[in-house]
Batch of 3 targets.
Target 1
Amino acid sequence: MKLDIFTNLVHGDLSFDESTGAISYPIYQSATFKHIGLNQSTGFDYSRESNPTRQKLESTLAILEGGKAAFAYSTGMAAIANLFNVFSSNDHIIVSNDLYGGTYRIFEELLCKQYGLQFTYVDTSNLNDIYNAYKENTKAVFIETPTNPMMKISDIKEISKFTKEKNILLIVDNTFLTPYFQRPLDLGADVVVHSGTKFLGGHNDVLAGAIILKENDELAERIKLIQKTVGAVLAPFDSWLLLRGIKTLGIRMEKQQENAFKIVEWLKQNKNVEEVFYPGIPDHVGHDICKSQSSGFGSMLSFSVKDVSLVKTILEGVKIISFAESLGGVESLITYPMVQTHSAIPKDILDAIGVNDKLLRLSVGIECAEDLIKDLERAMRLTI
Ligand SMILES: *Cc1c(COP(=O)(O)O)cnc(C)c1O
């Protein structure tokens, strides 16, 4: 049955707990499951391998992203760590240079230095940079779009033409737009990863991660094996929190985006602000591509202030918006990428992508937009 995303968000795979009829899918807080006889299983044996609540979440995520297999993990980083176990030393991966700091850290500190994988960081919004980085041993292209924090847009469809031609994987971190606004697998990607901690969970109360695959093929089997071997799986209660968060993803994304547009308008006219980075603005370099491949622009935005002293004033002055890491929840958060999320990234890369000491990133929540603007205005000492 082909259903609208709003219905899929609420009902997932339409399965329910047949023994009770519970409307809220039960939390199967059990590490292990009783065998009904020798060589007989209920389908569940041990929760590292599979758990009913996690399975309900995984099938929901597969439906939302238009994939055939999904795997849920304790964090977004655990998902990425599990995924990269499919690669071997000397495999080469092309990566967006404007990247989540933790992802950069696992690639460089663990996978490169300790396990011998190779990474080349390029501006994936520029197709030629990807083509030029390709080597004999290239096994995948890993992108974020929009990127964090500069909101650059990469053309998923065009990149997928290249990865298909070379028979390598296209992996998209879809944390910022979620399947509500963007479905990379429909555009040609092979793998989607998520930090479910962000928009999917949506309430700044749970850490989670996921991998969703276009096909249920050998790659899916391999990841299933890695998941049950490595672990770092999502706990039953946390799976339930994510299932609950996902039910309201659509209405949250709409409201957060509406708020983001209002704040962007205000920031653009603010004399203290130098530049605003948001893909929803028509003069943003990636606007047209974002519009063609996504049904929305999301609620993540960055802006640079003219005077660096304003950074401290704003971060310490906001009262409704919290100065905190993370993003995507109902509460608005403001982040200083240079010292927080991107502190692991070398200065030359930061300079190349434009992250500097005047840049702030805002994750817009579902509060009243006018209150958020007043909060920023007060913090900038524009009004008392
Ligand atoms: C937060 C984040 C991650 C890491 O997820 P955790 O749940 O914090 O481990 C990965 N990618 C992006 C784009 C993120 O924002």
Target 2
Amino acid sequence: MAFDLSVYPWVYMAKYEHDTWSDSYIEKPHKTPQEEAALSPDERQTLLRTRNSFPELPLVNYTTQYGMGCFEGLKAFPHKDGSMHLFRPDENAARFKKSMEGLMMPAFPEDMFVHGVAETVRRNNSLGFRPVYDPAWEKTHFIDGHAVYVRPFSYSEPAIGLGLSKEPWVVAVSTPVGSYFRPGNTKAVTTDKVRAYPGGTGWIKCDANYVVPILAKKTAEKKGFMEAIFLDAAEHTYIEEGSSCNIFFYLKNGTLVTPDLADTILPGITRKSVLTLAQDLGISTEERKISIDEALSDGREVFVTGTAAGISHFESITHKGTTVPFGNGNMGEVTTALCRKLKGIQYGAEEDIHQWMVRV
Ligand SMILES: *Cc1c(COP(=O)(O)O)cnc(C)c1O
């Protein structure tokens, strides 16, 4: 059956025109969540298609033709008391602004971003479109917890020639999400493909960066792996990222290492948070270049981080035909501790000492 994206009814939309941003909320067609759940597959498909249809937006433009667009991904988490909490939306707002500047577009104000996202989650929440906190998640430390995924993105004005978007829209849709990586296979493999190169757009969370990683990930999956790991463009020696996540190695000497941010590494908010949490746990951290050889010989645990992935470990890495296991094939001790801490804060089970969560 065709997969229809389940977009929640309330959508945020802002537009830059006459040197200012103005915004609004759009209520797309919907029934109650219970009524929608009872629809036949065909009826449900028809309804969801109207929800993901925006006749007010032009089809032919710089974004759809040339990939001139950027986006964000952030989550709102249900807490036990029924409230919903966004994780570090100010960080996403700041990165989105940088991305738009990187694509030479008028930047979207950070306060509008945070307010717009929170209000969209709140409105959907009021209609009952929200995941319900399940105490059973506590047993697995929220590894299988559900959340609202919010996807704000830029979208250009109508155009067909080469040019910059001068009057973009910013749209934010949201969808329910469960866990990202299917349990089972957590094998990773290095890829010869190049995600980012010095002087390129690797540091921007832009549409154009996703083509190569998707091809690499799907190629890896065909060979029986879950994920592809990118090495640097120039020497093909240093580890960069997973297909859309930052990467960490916990070394045998007790240090947690992640590649330092240059213009080929995306500054992940989960990455930044994990560095803080590791320091809280008394683990020494280093942001530096790490070669694939060092990682394979000195690494004890390996995991990737991202809003969608959370913290996901790899049981092994295959490089040039050799497979090296990590964490005895399971999620290692340090990875587990960091994952529990992060998810605990997100779902309100651990004290939020850094005040990362924003109640909507
Ligand atoms: C979004 C993204 C990440 C993860 O960033 P988070 O802020 O942690 O979600 C990592 N790498 C790439 C290439 C990304 O696009």
Target 3
Amino acid sequence: MTADPSADPRRRVPRTDTLLAEPQVAAAAGRLGRELVKTAVQTVQTRVRSGDLPPEDAVAAVLAALPGTAGSLQPVLNATGVLVHTNLGRAPLSAAAVEAVVAASGTTDVELDLATGRRGPRGEAALSALLAAVPAAEAALVVNNCAAALALVATCFCAGRELVIARGELVEIGDGFRIPELLTATGARLREVGTTNRVALADYTAALTPDTGAVLKVHPSNFVVRGFTRAVEVAELAPALAGTGVPLVADVGSGLLRPHPLLPDEPDLQTALADGADLVLASGDKLFGGPQAGLVLGRADLVQRLRRSPLYRALRVDKTTLAALEATLRGPQPPVHQMLDADPDMLRKRARALAARLVDGGLDAVAVASTARVGGGGAPEFELPSCAVSLPAAFAEPLRRGPRPVVGHLAGDRTLLDLRSLLPAQDDALADAVLAVAQRWT
Ligand SMILES: *Cc1c(COP(=O)(O)O)cnc(C)c1O
């Protein structure tokens, strides 16, 4: 008796055309593009050929192998307790900002006045929202990020000239990004004043020459110098520069609009301008709580010079960033601020409720007190009281690699899932993600 060749599943590998013609697969190809779907088809054919998958399960396997979107960036639940986590994309956008981004994604009136049919100023609504939020500013400009704002300022005011900066403010932000290297790359010559730990007003004034293009103050965002120290603040520096014609530029880093009661050491845009800075620079995606952007606010004549610079065109932002920025300013409190202001009692309740759900699911989970941080180079020493769900340390990797990735942080032999870097509306997704990982595992 000879074996029936059709009984061998490897002989019955479904053809590419057949699989692609399946209605659900064809619909996916319309949504994700044919190439991504074809890759999934080929992976599944290989599995059938090797006898690993019955041919009749091929269509379901193709659908299961498809990515959720045509892009490969995945949403991640940030349970690190670091509110602004650079590796996780910094500030999450508010729902209002996400809606504005979606609305602006197609063709939009970013540079057209619909009333007259003529060209209009680009992103005017976002700029006026910025000016409404920072009344001390006469004018505003938005570029790609704060590094771009620094590059634009240094190029415009200091190329071939001197930029005066305190030695204690030659900051490395992270991942090897050093502000002094960025500044000199523009052709500005740094005129360093003071020492690592101390600088006096006289150091600044003695450094001024006809060749001085600007004086720059940089907020030492991610470190603190303690002991025998002295810095010169904007309020002290501004009167000494008044009348010299040298602009005073303050890079405040994390982009608070106004002072925050919890973060007294964090500079803000409104105060820096009210104290006499001619221009202030900040990131859009740190404590400001919006999209990646570099915010430039201050004197109208200086902002106009930056806008006229040929470099500005290379650094300007797109319509979706402008949309997100405006909605962050005009819409409800952005997520980073909700997290910053979260009530510790609420955090405890959330942690207990989550731990109880996980214990019901058979896990070794317990609510514990924890410590959260601002992150993103803001308020480096500031600890926010928080609560976390503690799980065995072995959960860290499977949680990160699960279908809905969760990033926590390790503390000894436990993985802590901190609730301050998540919004209450994300708690269900967190519980589901942990339970799904536990189920796969056991
Ligand atoms: C974070 C930071 C920057 C860099 O900002 P990006 O928006 O990431 O370019 C520059 N200056 C200071 C003081 C910062 O804290």
